[in-house]
Amino acid sequence: MRSLVTTVMVAAASLVIASPALAQDRSVDGRLTQLEKRMNTVERVVSRTSGPLVQPEITPENGPVAAPGTPATAPIADLEQRMTSVESTLSGFTGRLEVDEHKLQQLEADFAAYKRATDARLKALEDKAAPAPGPDDGTAVDDGPTPTRPGAKPPTGPARPTANDPDRAKAVAAVPKPAGKDAVDKAMYAYNYGYRLWQAKFYPEAEAQLQGFGGKFAGHRLVSRAQNLLGMVYMDDDKPNLAAQVFYENYSKLPDGERAPDSLLNLAKALAVLKKPRTDICRVYSELGDVYGTKLTAAQKAEADKGRAASKCA
User: Fold this and answer.
1) Which CATH class is domain 106-314?
2) Is 261 in contact with 292 (CB distance < 8 Å)?
3) CA 229, CA 206: separation in Å to the nearest integer?
4) Distance of CA 188 to CAs 50, 193, 229, 259, 271, Å?
5) How far does CA 109 lie from the centroid of its chain?
6) What do you get for the CA distance between the two ends of the chain, in Å?
7) Angle, CA of 54, 59 and 61, to the nearest 5°
8) Which residues contact 83 (CB under 8 A, 6 or more apart)?
9) Average pLDDT by consecutive 10-residue portion of the chain (314 residues)?
């Protein structure tokens, strides 16, 4: 009897030892269930004293047993798992790239819409407020009094010139006209004379001198300067709407002109005077930095930084 028990116990132990790979692949509950079944078989064998030997409920598997330390998965399966991980990472990166590209397209569309809306508003303002150009002798049509900017000295004579105002005509005639080679170059003469009229605060006369400069002297290097100066004259003559349009057109039509960066700076100032939304003003400063960047002078950078701070641009 004792030998039979010993034989059965050894057989049961051999079953446990013979299948370590199988036990490693099962869960803890599964392994406990197997052990319980094997112990029940042992008990039944020990308790029998006669009759045929009870066959165990669990028999060793006939398949080959993996040696300890064998990888849990085949090399192909491991490679497929790694490829799946790489594909998942690449898919996430592609998704983020598509989102960023969509955002960039939205920003470009928003800026294009802003430019179209600005063009339309400025064109409407020009059609309503543009004064009739005066003759080439420097006079302008009288369209009523014009307020002066705070702190600015009013020009000599009445607020607006009239064709029959001898005192103002004498004052304008006292402004020295360009001479020498400046007088020979018609574009140079118009620009310099307009500049001197502006300095003397004869704004309507300066406007008449500079209006249409780009059409008369298309392609001349002074066109960018003249248009920027015309916008400054409008600003000093309390016409920020016209000034904003001139500044914007000078930048958009002649982005490589000498005064294109200054026109963007002046456009931001005109929008501030017009009390336009802060976002519009900040977009102008962003455009200035994006387009010209390192080409800006130290004075232009300082002026831009001051304007950004005043408008609380990010």
Assistant:
1) mainly alpha
2) yes
3) 9
4) 132, 8, 13, 16, 30
5) 11
6) 94
7) 165
8) none
9) 48 48 51 65 55 54 54 67 72 70 72 71 57 34 33 41 74 90 88 95 94 92 96 96 96 94 96 94 94 93 94 89
